[in-house]
Design goal:
This protein has 709 residues and is α+β, with helices and mostly antiparallel strands. The chain has 23 helices and 20 strands. The relative contact order is 0.08.
Length: 709
Amino acid sequence: MPSPVAQVTARLQRRLPTRLARIALLATFGLVTVGAGMLWATYRALAPELRGFLEQVDSVSPVGGTLVFAGSGDTLTSFYRQKRVNVDLEDVPHDVQQAVLSVEDWRFYEHWGIDLWGLARAVVANLRHGWGSQGASTLTQQLARNLILKSHERTLTRKLKEAMLTLRLERTYTKAEILRMYLNEIYFGEGAYGIEAAARTYFSRSVRDLNRIESVTLAGIPKNPNNYSPTRNPERALRRRNLVLRTMVDHGVLGQAAFDSLSALPLLLRPAAGGDQLGAYFVEEVRKHLESAYGDSLLYEGELRVYTQLDVALQASMEKALETRLHEIETTYDLPFERDPADSLAAGEPPRYLQGAGIALDPRTGAILAMVGGRSFHDSRFNRATQARRQPGSCFKPFVYTAAIQAHHTPADIILDTPVVIDIGYGLGLWKPQNYEKTFNGPVSMRYALAKSLNIPAIKLQEDVGTEKVIAVAKRLGIQSKMEAVKSLALGTCEVTLIELASAYGTLANGGIQSRPWFIERIEDRSGRILEQNQPFHAEALDPQTAYIVTHMLQSVIDWGTGHNARDLYGLTIPVAGKTGTTDDTADGWFVGYTPELVVGIWGGYDERKSIGLTGSAVGLPPWSDIMRNYYVRRPAPAFAAPAGIVSESVCSESGKLATPQCPKVLTEYFLSAARPQQECDMHTLRVMDLERSGSFPGHEDTRPPDEP
């Protein structure tokens, strides 16, 4: 069988003019003869160093970053020193592979690392058009140069190292493995290493989702990433792309008609958008855990795989709702500082505009589904969902009512909403609390008092059941911050974080079972070995009957209480429960609400703790309603199911006792079976009914019965 050199000679003689063929042959033989001698001499001199390189080749693996996956399985983000995301060859479309091979190394599957025919062809091209007009490096040679040598110097020593490493790569790996490593290693400009990072950088999508023209565009970049960058030099990139298309035609993988239509297209870039990435605050919480638990090296170079349950659609909905509604407040009320989404603050400059935070949890598992820690991660990395401790205001009241229901109070119990004077003690004098409206309603039911967020009944209930019991209930439900046993605790004067407040409401949503919030489901190393698996924490904090009664009362908040705008203005029709929260100085506006499968908490305010002048129903409720409504457009909303041990009775709305035919206003109310009322209403005798007609029982005129569960 003829030698490779003889084969090259024969092919050249058939293809080239005689004189040019002789020159090419002489040049080729001269190069081969001289090169062989120099190769042997240099090899002996560099033998020890080459052995080290060859050992490195045996264990070579392109360094990749850590990938973080959303609940859908899609990649949420990556952490890397270089912008690199390694992919398997089967995830790279055939169009990409064909385009790369056409322009970089068409004989890739035929040569053994060094392409003699390509080398001879390059010699002829250089003789015709000048030295440097065409290269002859194969993909394997480029991989050896980029992955191991990390050098592009033009010396004989480097060329020898490259040749030896190329041969070793070909002996060690299959062609498919070499192509995969090449596609994951090669530089595409803009800080993007590898085809996946390039696809995301230039087209904002994964490589597996690229179309043909996008694939060809990327294939043309590695030759000279700076000159052929589609974002920096679009005209050169366009010419280069069309050159790649022409080579594909020349190699028979693209027809002329397809070339004509594709080459007429513009670049059609979709570069990654500027500003914060989706879920920036959530991603930062994940990054901090990884860095703390595994160190800097594993985080950025260990190719970890981190799985979360973040809901991408819910996250996007939360970010949009918060920004839209807070911007509305800024413009409607002409606030002194307004955030400009198109502009970022200078480094170190604190944001003075109105802030907001949000969190969404699955109360059944504790999985964090979405999180917003502020309006701009670029402007401030301070996470207001996990780090900011603020007074919850009336959002604390459900814990008072939970303690009262546990003590066998009922939603129908009547409390006097009348002026009260409390001795604070410690020589601090007297406290005269008031309702937000600065009015008093007289006798009201517990349900009405919670739905309308009245302060006086909450204070009286806390006095009745005991402040320490209220604290114990709040802790069991999920509040971890310190709470002082003070009279004003019922009004939410302690400080909590949004995540713990949402978690505590989640315990009510989950029938009294607390599920501790978590960010990460599991972490795997590059081989698939599980390094960390979340162990969900569940604890029975409350009996399901009490949780149901409190939830049913919180449904009234939205049906006809302080959160009624969720239905009347914002179009929310699904079964939900929740509570508004406003601090005494209106520096904090809250809304936390839930269904059986989703808890969403919203906070708004200034970082400096100054007054907004608005309540939680104006600050927290609008974005909360938007988020809930958008979430349940895509799925049916579950109802709250009553557990065993819950009974319903018809009661008089004014006495809270069992209704009689004489009672003018009758409601269906729900009770713990052990706390069902036993006495019939004794208010509505003929004498009492005369008093009713005279208007002696205020506070119930706008009370409407809650829906049946």
